[in-house]
Amino acid sequence: MVKSPRWDYLGIWEQEADHIRNKVPADATENEMLGKRAGETYTSMLWKEKISAHKKVVICAEMSFDYQMAPLLVIASEYGKDSGACPEYRQHWEIVLYDKGINVWHHQYADGKPSWYKAAALHTAFAPNQKVMMTVTINFAGKVPQLEIRADGKTFSYAELQLPKSFFVGLTACEGVNRFYSFSVTY
Length: 187
Prior knowledge:
Low-confidence stretches: none
Distance between the termini: 23 Å
CATH architecture: Sandwich
Helix content: under 10%
Strand order of the largest sheet: 1-2-16-5-12-13-14
CATH topology: Jelly Rolls
CATH superfamily: Exo-inulinase, domain 1
Strand content: over 45%
Number of domains: 1
CATH class: Mainly Beta
Largest sheet: 7 strands, antiparallel
Shape: globular
Structural class: mainly beta
Mean pLDDT: 95
């Protein structure tokens, strides 16, 4: 389990019959979970094994969201600890599924403060309550790492100059109810 440096909440996964989902506040509206109560929905975990660069790494997860967003795959170069010794993200990338497409956010951490920017995006529609298989292929064969993101027959790619040669991968749920049905890493 790893928390965001934006919020104090570590998050909780709930096991269902065929998936895991993030625990969200029972009294929060869907719009509140997208806004002022987003931090209470954030739940994330990394696979314990750090992946060293190979020619190709493939990360897959079948996921869904209940309202508008935002299940995601995460790639983290490292993680740190907050003041209470809880694992906390530092530099990482989020490949986010939502109702209007897929965003790739590059998060950075400097001087004790997080910042982020959108590194890439695909504008298309994804419906709530529908399972989507998302695949992120990281190709290290060329001079610059290339990320190819696929979901429901839609594909886009971009060059990620700052992606390190070794990293952790995982899942994050936030800004609403998110469900994960499978997760795999091949390298």
